[in-house]
Amino acid sequence: MTRKPEFKILPMSEEHIPEVARLEIECFSVPWSPRMLRDAISSPTGVYLAAVSDNGVLGYIGADFVLDTGYITNIAVAPGMRRRGIGAALLSALTREAAERNLKYLTLEVRRGNLPAISLYSSRGFKKTGERPGYYKNPDEDADIMTAEIQSF
Ligand SMILES: CC(C)(COP(=O)(O)OP(=O)(O)OC[C@H]1O[C@@H](n2cnc3c(N)ncnc32)[C@H](O)[C@@H]1OP(=O)(O)O)[C@@H](O)C(=O)NCCC(=O)NCCS
To answer: Is 126 within 8 Å of 88 (Cβ atoms)?
Structure first.
């Protein structure tokens, strides 16, 4: 049986950047650099959260909150730690933060073939609301736009 990992969800800060940058390289074909991550966490619209255990960063999620909408820019969980609820916990924490700030929607782009991510979003109330043909490179792939309405807590 796989044990549920113990972790806390914290605002992402400078100390997390090196590990998050490593996760970016492990998880994405066009990874964000440490500098891009630093810019993101210091942006006035940026909301970045990290799932942190005693062994370090297990995953993270980021968004830009603009007016009534949170645009999710990244979510990733370390390959060896997936299917243990960490991605869902990060998405819930971001949704809570968005609800507390009275946002109405969360939205994102996802590779059309990224079934784990699409399953996660669908299970949390996201629906396909549009598409962006040829949005992704390396490899070329269309994006689906998925959006969730934020329920009041
Ligand atoms: C998408 C991702 C963040 C999910 O993280 P995770 O911690 O494994 O997700 P969870 O364990 O919280 O899963 C929550 C739900 O998502 C769905 N899900 C997650 N991985 C899945 C998979 N491989 N296949 C099918 N459904 C999956 C399931 O509905 C799951 O609920 P369940 O475990 O009760 O069935 C992770 O796969 C990842 O980091 N992928 C690489 C980066 C990426 O593609 N990010 C998305 C960019 S748009």
So the answer is: no
State the Cα–Cα distance between residues 7 and 32, nearest whole angstrom. 24
C-alpha of residue 83 to centroid of ligand 1, in Å: 6
Domain span at residue 57 reads 8-149
Nearest residue by C-alpha to atom 42 in ligand 1? 76
Whole-structure pTM value: 0.96
Residue 3 lies in a domain: no
What number does the ligand 1 atom closest to the CA of 119 have? 17
110-121 pLDDT per residue, tens = 999 999 999 999
CA 92, CA 44: separation in Å to the nearest integer? Answer: 21
Specify the CATH number for the domain of residue 17. 3.40.630.30
Torsions phi, psi of 17, nearest 5? -55, -45
Q: Which residues line ligand 1 (CB under 6 A)?
A: 27, 75-77, 82-88, 110, 114-117, 119-120, 123
Total domains, the chain: 1
**Structural domain includes residue 107:** yes
